[in-house]
Specification:
With 335 residues, the protein is α+β, with helices and mostly antiparallel strands. The chain has a single domain, classed as Double-stranded beta-helix (4-Layer Sandwich). 24% of the residues lie in helices and 22% in strands. The protein is built from 7 helices and 17 strands. Strands 2, 3, 4, 5, 7, 14, 16 and 17 form an 8-stranded mixed β-sheet that branches. The chain has a 5-stranded antiparallel β-sheet with strand order 1-13-8-15-6, with helices on one face. Helix 2 packs across helix 4 and helix 5 crosses helix 6. The two termini are 38 Å apart. The protein binds 2-oxoglutaric acid (AKG) and fe (ii) ion.
């Protein structure tokens, strides 16, 4: 069973949770298997055109739970517990994402895509896991200390997914297949009452830069990293601002000491509100990427086939917004 815990003195994020009954879990699983029989892959436009329509056949309690989450302005995450996992047919955890598309894990990619499509449209990045829409999060040899999701010994610092890009996701979906040592996915948020108005004003100004993280692996000219222009960290209605933050990949614009101080105060707040959600097999977490940041606690990888394994999707609410970055061939794959 998932546990949610705050490890610090800070405030807790708002998380909504749904526990499936055995019947609901079975119904969802049956629909998933029917999709898998009819469509060769989750990423095909044939399937994605119908994903939302097919999702209508999911149990009503799941659909209305997701719809409430979608409409809320203040919910940082939603967790659905109790999806059926056929452990007897699930292969050993692969040691690289390249080997993540196994027959036994495939049904959960379908399930994740169906549920995600009730929140929006799934998108992928050409430069990330070869443009796959459903990606795999597994610890990989040689990546233990890296700054990306295949790390293990090192904490994956909190971040807005793809904070560097205007086309970043509105939600990130994480479906847990294995998590033997109950490693926490972390979640944090900003309560604007915790920062002085002057600092909030600075954070609303275009005085910050975000670099693209190293999970994007396409060729870049030597010495050059793709980065955002100068942008604000907080946007939208000051009453409930949207947050864009990445502990490892953000900075103030060069020479701006006032912005540096505001960023330092923001980081302190986000650190102190950091909360752990230890996903159990069959749990699905949707993070609201507009108002929450997420990451992961460190753990010791085993590389014995029993390691932690998640399926992941990025979801946008409006494909028109991301169209500016999409490839010519596929409006769901961004460059
Ligand atoms: O492994 C986790 O729990 C989170 C990983 C993560 O941040 C991601 O895959 O985007
Ligand atoms: Fe992430």
């Amino acid at each position: 069973m998932t546990s949610v815990s705050s490890v610090s003195e800070g405030s807790l994020p708002k998380i909504t949770e749904l526990q499936l009954t055995g019947n609901e879990s079975e119904e969802a699983h049956r629909l998933t298997l029917a999709c898998a029989r009819r469509h060769p892959e989750t990423d095909t436009s044939d399937f994605l055109r119908f994903a939302r329509t097919l999702a209508c056949r999911l149990p009503m309690r799941i659909l209305s739970f997701l719809e409430e989450f979608r409409q809320a302005e203040d919910l940082h995450a939603a967790v659905i517990h109790g999806h059926h996992i056929a452990t007897e047919t699930l292969e050993p955890t692969p040691s690289t994402w390249q080997n993540g598309r196994t027959p036994g894990s495939r049904p959960y990619s379908w399930l994740l895509t169906l549920l995600a499509s009730w929140l929006g449209d799934v998108i992928g990045w050409q430069s990330q896991q070869s443009g796959r829409l459903v990606t795999d999060v597994v610890p990989s040899p040689g990546m233990e200390q890296s700054l990306v999701s295949s790390c293990s010994d090192r904490e994956l610092s909190w971040h807005t997914e793809d904070a560097w890009s205007e086309s970043r996701a509105d939600y990130v979906g994480l479906f847990c297949l294995r998590n033997p040592s109950h490693v926490g996915t972390t979640l944090s948020f900003l309560d604007t009452r915790d920062l002085p108005p002057k600092i909030l004003t600075v954070l609303q100004e275009a005085r910050f830069v975000f670099a693209r993280d190293e999970s994007h692996t396409d060729e870049e000219p030597p010495g050059e990293t793709r980065r955002s222009p100068n942008v604000p960290v907080l946007t939208g209605n000051p009453r409930c601002p949207q947050l864009r933050a990445d502990r490892d990949f953000m900075a103030e614009r060069p020479g701006d000491a006032v912005a540096r101080n505001a960023l330092r105060m923001l980081i302190t707040q986000l650190d102190s509100n950091l909360t752990d959600i230890a996903l159990a097999p069959g749990d699905l977490l949707f993070v609201n990427n507009r108002i929450a940041v997420h990451g992961r606690r460190p753990f010791t990888p085993r590389y014995d086939g029993a390691d932690r394994w998640l399926k992941r999707v990025n979801i946008v609410r409006d494909l028109w917004r991301t169209q500016v970055d999409s490839t010519e061939e596929n409006n769901r794959i961004l460059v």
